[in-house]
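anyone seen this seq b4? input:
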Amino acid sequence: MTVFGQILTVAGALVLLLAAVGLLRFGDVYMRASAVATATGGGITLVLVGAFLVSPGVADGLMVLLAVVLQLVTSAVGGVLLARSAVLTGHRFRPDTASTALAGPARNGDDPC
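predicted toks r here
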């Protein structure tokens, strides 16, 4: 189990490294938010599960489970809120992005949300 735990930990670190590269390479805030939100959910989960497999225990298992659940929830919500705030503040999309699907109701108070 120790070797498998180490493999999972390294795999999670590589996922997080790729997310960091995505922050530098992607063209706008929307793609960056997507890369980071997706990668942190998977990467941190792999690192925590790998660390648990290296040193298992009941209390550690409960802490890992709680940390994974909280990470997945907050990562997804944070990514969506970041992208939504960018849209609401008028941050521009890349020119090759088809943003017509985001055209919503007019801003005159009759927003159904």
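The chain has a mean pLDDT of 84. Residues 65 and 88 are 35 Å apart (CA to CA). kinda curious what u guys think
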